Amino acid sequence: MAPKESITDNFQETRKLGGLLALEIESGRRQVPASGKAQVFCLEGDLGAGKTTFTQGLLEGLGAEGPYTSPTFLIMKHYEVKIQNPKTKVQNIYHFDAYRVGEEDILSLGWEELVSDPENVIIVEWPERIEKILPERSVRIKFEWLDENRRKITFV
Ligand code: ADP
Ligand code: MG
Known about the structure:
Bound molecules: adenosine-5'-diphosphate, magnesium ion
Structural class: alpha/beta
Oligomer: single chain
Radius of gyration: 14 Å
Mean pLDDT: 92
């Protein structure tokens, strides 16, 4: 990932940052060669910090079929990629919001299978809630509220 730490001045910039991550995924540069597992991105930060906004840019950049709604009341939302990238083979995107749930709830949605499939990209809001079941290879992205329109986004 090019910048380790970014400050965005409005929501469009945060969305664009999600698009940049999509480009990295699409190029195949992020995937650990032959890891044979899903790529997992954990978005940490308080309510309103921009996690869902970032996710929308990521979904769009990966060519996920919209609309991109917040999964807060769903726990998980599944998206299919319109045209599979022949290089990365990413086919499905699962957007989790663990705010109101715990590890058992997420496991019961087939979590173990989902994280084992290299054709999946998995995005988790509130990963703190399900720390014990997150794969060690998960990529951490931290969101901080600076003021009404500015957010700090750090790739840990
Ligand atoms: P979260 O998923 O972390 O709770 P959301 O992305 O749902 O956060 O909400 C962020 C809110 O803050 C949105 O209403 C968005 O328009 C607003 N916002 C203002 N400035 C920014 C920014 N720089 N980046 C992201 N969101 C911003
Ligand atoms: Mg959210």
